[in-house]
Specification:
239 residues, alpha/beta, OB fold (Dihydrolipoamide Acetyltransferase, E2P), five-stranded parallel β-sheet, five-stranded antiparallel β-sheet
Length: 239
Amino acid sequence: MKKVVIVDDESSGRKLIKEYLEDHKDLIIMGEANNGVDAIKLINEFKPDLVFMDIQMPGLTGFDVLEHLEELPHIIFSTAYDQYALKAFEVHAVDYLLKPYTKERFTTAIHKISAIKNLVPLAEDHIQQKKEYPDRIIVQKGSKYVTLATQDIHYIEAYGDYSKIHSADAVFISNHGISVLEEKLSPKDFLRIHRSTIVHLPKIEEVNRYGKSYLIKLLNQTELKVSRGYADKIKALIY
């Protein structure tokens, strides 16, 4: 038996896949999602062997979803857009189903899985070759999860075992501690200025002397103190 997850923003697309899967009793559907954020949560929870993945979806594309998975399953892309075919095979997808497709074409894609001798993460090369740091991250806002562009972050502050991410007009919660976020975000753009604070360098308006250290003012007029232990990092940026 293999576990399956279906990801498609159109209910008709999910319905067709479920209908075609009725002929494949060894494939058990664990769940379905209609957007990238929910897909990530679902796949990370159930760790399926196979995912039918749409590409163009609200918030995150199918390719974006791959970059947020803890374990990477076999992927069969199912989409109405043929321009993504080359990229799909670059991430080692099992197959690329171009809508509308027949049951026979669907079955051909399923048979390709059986031809794969070793169950390895098919997007492993994609993970190794992708950009080292993300342009978008998934964070908590109230009772739901949303995507946030890293360029919109102003600063990050420690929040117990978690972190608070501040943008111009909102505060989000990250499940990671501040040291983990420091490693996950680009050091070219994000700088640790305190054991409890990371600043987004493009959001700095001015830097002022503050005793033996510095006081940073952001574009939104927030002021952040640089601890003496991190003062040399700011000094290194001054020409």
